Amino acid sequence: MVKPPFSLRRFPFGSSSERAARSFVRAERLVRGLGKAVLLTGLCFVMLYPLLFILSSSFKSREDIYNPAVVWIPQEFSLQAMKTAFRVLDYPQALLKTLMILVPGVLLQLAASLLAGYGFARFRFPCRGLLFGLLIFTIIVPVQTYIIPLFVNMQQFNFFGIGSLVGLFTGSPLTLNLIDTPAVFYLLAAFGMGIRSGLCIFIIRQFFRNMPVELEEAAMIDGCGSLKTFLRVMVPNTLPLIATVLVFSIVWYYNDYYLSAIFFRTEFPLSVSLTTMSQLLGTYSQGLQGMGGMTGQELGLMKEPVLACGCLLTVVPLVLAYVFLQRYFTEGVERSGIVG
Questions:
Q1: Among 156, 220, 309, 338, which one has the highest count of C-beta atoms within 10 angstroms of its own C-beta?
Q2: Is the separation of the CB atoms in 253 and 105 below 8 Å?
Q3: String of b and e for 10-21 (b: at least 16 CB within 10 Å)?
Q4: Which are the contacts of 189, defined by CB distance < 8 A and separation ≥ 6?
Q5: Helices (H), the chain
């Protein structure tokens, strides 16, 4: 039985003092409940306000925009802004480009991070502390500090020096231009230098360190080698971890703007197309009639709903992915010891 904040035994049974004390306890609980409710409501509103604003603005007609009585719920639901944003963004092409970067990049990053994280967690090898320090260094140092040599290497990719050796015999080095291709992201992800790969490796290392060593010892007694133990014993027990890394990697690759804007010159992914949507609206203001398009004057008046629709089209795939992976993501975060 939970004891009240102060004892009621000193009051005579049924006395006015006892009734006043019980009323005080009920009032205190009510105030605490109201305080928690107000706090949670405020936090939810701050987090959900951008999404509610996007949903409200996306389906407004031109009349609703300039009607001061319309705040959240449109009086006339219209899909004109949605159709225009769909066409201005070239949504199918931009989404396809994003998926071409995201799916192979995330899978390659997951494979490389699992191997590296397991190696740091379980194996002892020379300079392990130094290499792990360099891994932490990659988390701290932003990509902007080494983007120029990275761009030059990808523009004149010589297959890790092999092309230069071939050039000693042929007279010209063997190079390949990877700019404007998703191969840049594949190459970086496969070698543990993808978007925040260092953080993924760190998360996986923490997860494997919390797993009992007896699992590997039992597998080795049964005749499993290191690789077989990793594939058949450790990986099947890391589904929450894999879901966590997948969610993080999907969000990072999907939202990446800097590298996509640097390495692509045409057919940008959604992240770049959305950030340049204002310029796209000006570029395509002519010739948007038909298929939900608008004239240049109407487009100027409907610019805010069109931008809101672009944001909505960009956010929807991430929201759907998180809905299906939420349970594994939460469990993986708890078991990997991530806080903050």
A1: 309
A2: yes
A3: eeeeeeeeeeeb
A4: 104, 105, 106, 108, 109, 112, 195, 197
A5: 16-58, 62-65, 80-88, 91-122, 128-140, 147-155, 162-170, 183-190, 197-209, 214-221, 226-229, 239-255, 258-263, 270-275, 277-283, 296-301, 303-336
Alpha-carbon gap, residue 308 to 84, rounded angstroms: 11
Phi-psi region of 90 (alpha: psi -120 to 50; beta: other; left: phi over 0): left
The arithmetic mean of pLDDT across residues 17-27, rounded, is 80
C-alpha 239/C-alpha 160 separation (Å) is 34
The end-to-end CA distance of the chain, in Å, is 35
Q: Output Rg (C-alpha) for the chain, integer angstroms.
A: 28
- Cβ neighbours of residue 145 under 8 Å, at least 6 residues apart? none
Largest CA distance in the chain: 105
Contact of 277 with 88, CB cutoff 8 Å: yes
Which secondary-structure segment (H or E) carries 165? Answer: helix 162-170
pLDDT for position 219: 85
- With 0-12 CB in 10 A as exposed, 13-18 as middle and 19+ as buried, what is 121? middle
Structure tokens at 252: 């990072």
3-class state of residue 44 by DSSP: helix
**Mapped to the 3 state alphabet, what secondary structure does 165-214 carry?**
HHHHHHCCCCCECCCCCCHHHHHHHHCCCCCCHHHHHHHHHHHHHCCCCH
Joined tokens for residue 267: 């057919």
For 41, 201, 242, 299, 323, the CA distances from 334, given in Å and listed in that order, are 25, 16, 13, 48, 18
Does the pLDDT of residue 8 top 50, yes or no? Answer: no
Cα–Cα distance measured from residue 20 to residue 217, given in angstroms and rounded to the nearest whole number: 65
Q: What's the rounded Cα separation, in Å, for the pair 295 and 287?
A: 7
CA distance 175 to 173: 6
The shares of helix, strand and coil residues in the chain, as percent rounded to the nearest 5, are 70, 0, 30
Q: Which residue has the higher pLDDT, 3 or 122?
A: 122
Which residue would you say has higher pLDDT here, 274 or 7? 274
Mean pLDDT of 137-155: 90
DSSP 69: T
